[in-house]
Specification:
This protein has about 180 residues and is mostly beta strands. It folds into two domains: about 5-20 and about 105-165, Roll (SH3 type barrels); about 35-105, Roll (SH3 type barrels). It has one helix and 16 strands. The chain has one helix at about 1-5, and strands at about 30, 40, 40-45, 50-55, 60-65, 70-80, 80-85, 90-95, 100, 105-110, 115-120, 130-135, 140-145, 150-155, 155-160, 165. The strands form five sheets. Strands 8-7-6-3-9 form a five-stranded antiparallel sheet, with no helix packed on it. A hairpin with a 2-residue loop joins strand 6 (about 70-80) and strand 7 (about 80-85). The longest helix is centred in the N-terminal third of the chain and has 4 residues, at about 1-5. The radius of gyration is 16 Å and the shape is elongated.
Length: about 180
């Protein structure tokens, strides 16, 4: 439940630069739905108060509340104006579509919660490390290609190996 309530950012080294997100995305092995968009696909939370319900109507109980705008979630199903979402911890529930954004974000994932993910100056393992990010940090995804993603956040901007992110498919290109 850590990400549903609060996400912390640890930036050990780095300089902040402005960030912008390209709304374009594609997902591997998707089905097209009545919305015309593929499922599954990643999106982010538009608000810092998002009710997650047990089913796709307001008559269903609120199972929990997300309190972090920008948190990435994966849409796994659609029913009318409702989207079933899954978060990086595997929790699933239904969210009203207007509370979701096509803006791409991702969460840093590591094998160990004490391990830090290196953020590089360029999409190259030998380039300078500009920051080290803790597991659970939420980043804006600017661009992904060839196994690397350009990400930014509060106090950092750089390149990270795509496999270190939850919120981007393994071989997905994000423009």
């Amino acid at each position: 439940m850590g990400l549903r309530r609060f996400c912390s950012v640890v930036v050990l080294v780095g300089a902040g630069l402005g960030a912008s997100i390209s709304p374009g995305f594609s997902a591997k092995d998707t089905a097209v739905t009545s919305s015309g968009l593929p499922v599954p696909r990643y999106v982010s939370l538009k608000s810092d108060h998002v009710n997650v319900r047990a089913g796709p109507t307001k008559d269903n109980d609120v199972a929990w509340v997300y309190t972090r705008s920008g948190l990435p979630v994966e849409i796994t199903a659609e029913f009318e104006n409702w989207r079933r979402v899954r978060d990086s911890e595997g929790a699933e529930g239904w969210v009203y579509h207007s509370l979701l954004s096509g803006r791409r974000t991702a969460v840093i994932t590591m094998k160990s919660k004490d391990e830090l993910a290196p953020l590089h100056e360029s999409a190259d393992q030998t380039s300078a490390v500009t920051a080290k990010l803790q597991a659970g940090v939420v980043t804006q995804v600017k661009h992904c290609a060839q196994g690397w993603c350009h990400v930014a956040g509060n106090g950092f901007d750089g390149w990270i190996e795509q496999q270190r992110l939850w919120g981007v498919y393994a071989d997905e290109k994000v423009d």
